[in-house]
UniProtKB/TrEMBL annotation:
Protein name: Potassium uptake protein, TrkH family
Listed InterPro entries: Cat_transpt (IPR003445), TrkH (IPR004772)
Membrane spanning stretches: 12-32, 38-58, 70-95, 140-163, 183-202, 239-261, 273-293, 332-352, 395-418, 454-482
Key words of the record: Cell inner membrane, Cell membrane, Hydrolase, Ion transport, Membrane, Metal-binding, Potassium, Potassium transport, Transmembrane, Transmembrane helix, Transport
UniProt cross-references to Pfam families, sorted A to Z: TrkH
Primary residence: membrane
Lineage: Bacteria, Pseudomonadati, Bacteroidota, Bacteroidia, Bacteroidales
Length: 485
């Protein structure tokens, strides 16, 4: 069965890392002389203490992590990180309900960006920084971060990577996974630093620049102001945000390989990147035309609002520069499609991932050809790589399960009185780790505070399931997972 000693050892190490992240926020709190200094001290002591307890339970553990252990440890690590991530909110008293605190922390780590806080500007600096930091760490993955900095802690790291990585095709830059992880984190760091400097050049203060750059590159969407990017009334900042969110929705492995090899053609020839780019441009153009003719925007404003919102939705960031709730309803359908597809695999974005969209189109094309040539053997190739039959079956299983979860959870919310549009888009938003929703009761610029408690727990579950791409979490609920052999 499960190697509980090794799992405890890994969880202990992960909690120590969370303690270090909390210490980071303590320093910010001390720098700004915020009122949340003592809550962070207590949060660090509790988290590090729990980590020590797990390490003691895991002493003398071997380093042999099985596939079953990997799926279990990844799921439990995300839940534990979220549980201890609620401490600063609860101890400080700025969030009174455990349900709300858990929802906020889960939304942070999964980079969903949905919030129950109506006015984040009223929070002290330390808590604001903690919200942004949860998204930045969760962007590439909690365990993946550990593999990059402390590869020896996670035994069987290849299996763990498979359980946490996004997309149906897992690509590595180097035979050693820890080396690949470091390379990908270098891309992430470079994007983050460049984003900070760009925001600063556009007029943001350093604190806002750090926070917005973390949530932009993590495609998370938490903001330091209730008005998000719209607060600053700066077209330059909106374009900067659009650019970095778009780049963060591109496969990081592909970006690294293209940058190191100085080979932009490699990026432009990639099927998934082209599919992603075409979606962004075509959807943005359609919405811009709608805004010009129906809402009487000038052309530049229409294009800026459309491209910002499309990129924000398709990369599942959730920042906003305009109130899409006041746009023509046909644009909501386009934005819902963005929620569904998401960005590229191996990026920080959510959704089903553009690579699956490419695979679906090729499967449909092959089916048409098969009708005309019943005896033909038709390979499914993406960028010259043949996709085996097993991955095609997994694709259909994934899409089917994604749609089933969406319909079941949306039906449940409608049955409990949430309006139809909100119920469907809340479900899509949570499962795709998007953040904003579309509807009259809860619009794209509003918090989710008014949702009933049960709906918040459903959404928290969907956020976790969506971030770990369904199977990693749901396999734990199958009888086969708990059988001895």
């Amino acid at each position: 069965m499960l190697n509980l000693k090794l799992i405890s050892k890994i969880l202990g190490a992960l909690l120590w890392i969370e303690g270090l992240l909390l210490f980071n926020c303590l320093l910010v709190s001390l720098w700004y002389r915020s009122v949340d200094t003592l809550p962070f001290v207590w949060s660090i002591l509790i988290t590090v203490g729990a980590g020590l307890l797990f390490r003691l339970l895991g002493r003398n553990a071997d380093n042999l992590l099985g596939r079953r252990d990997a799926y279990f440890v990844v799921t439990v690590a995300w839940i534990l990180f979220t549980l201890f991530g609620t401490l600063p909110f609860m101890i400080s008293g700025y969030i009174h309900s455990f349900t709300d605190a858990f929802f906020e922390a889960m939304s942070g780590f999964t980079t969903t960006g949905a919030t129950i806080i109506d006015y984040p500007e009223r929070l002290p600096k330390g808590l604001l920084y903690w919200r942004s930091l949860t998204q930045w760490i969760g962007g590439l993955g909690i365990v993946f971060f550990t593999i990059a900095i402390l590869p020896s802690i996670v035994g069987g790291s290849v299996k763990v990577f498979a359980a946490e990585a996004t997309g149906p095709i897992k690509s590595k830059l180097h035979p050693r996974l820890s080396t690949s992880a470091k390379s990908i984190w270098i891309v992430y760091l470079v994007l983050t630093v460049a984003c900070i400097l760009s925001y600063k050049l556009c007029g943001m203060g350093w604190f806002d620049a750090f926070n917005y750059s973390m949530t932009s590159t993590a495609t998370g969407g938490f903001a330091t102001e209730s008005g998000s990017i719209m607060t600053f009334h700066s077209p330059a900042e909106e374009y900067v945000c659009t650019l970095f969110c778009f780049l963060s929705g591109v496969n990081f492995t592909l970006m690294y390989a293209s940058a190191v090899g100085m080979d932009v053609k490699r990026l432009l020839k990639n099927s998934e990147f082209r599919f992603y780019t075409v979606m962004v441009l075509s959807f943005a153009l359609f919405i811009a035309v709608e805004l010009v003719y129906r809402n009487h925007y000038d052309i530049e404003h229409a294009f800026r609002s459309a491209i910002f919102q499309v990129v924000s939705f398709i990369t599942t960031t959730g920042l906003f520069s305009d109130d899409a709730g006041k746009w023509p309803h046909v644009t909501w359908v386009v934005l819902a499609a963005c929620m569904f597809f998401g960005g590229c695999s191996g990026s920080t974005s959510g959704g089903i991932k553009s690579i699956r969209g490419v695979m679906l189109l090729k499967v449909v094309r092959n089916e048409f050809r098969q009708i005309l040539h019943p005896n033909a053997v038709l390979p499914l190739k993406i960028d010259g790589i043949n996709i085996p039959q097993a991955k095609r079956v997994t694709l259909l299983g994934f899409i089917g399960l994604y749609l089933f979860l969406t319909l079941f959870c949306a039906f449940t919310m409608i049955a409990f009185g949430i309006d139809n549009t909100n119920a469907i888009t809340i479900t899509l938003s949570s499962l795709g780790n998007v953040g904003p929703t579309l509807g009259m009761e809860i619009g794209p610029t509003m918090s989710w505070a008014q949702l009933p408690g049960f709906a918040k727990w459903i959404c928290s579950f969907l956020m976790l399931v969506g971030r770990l791409e369904l199977f990693t979490v749901l396999v734990l609920f199958t009888p086969a997972f708990w059988k001895e052999n």
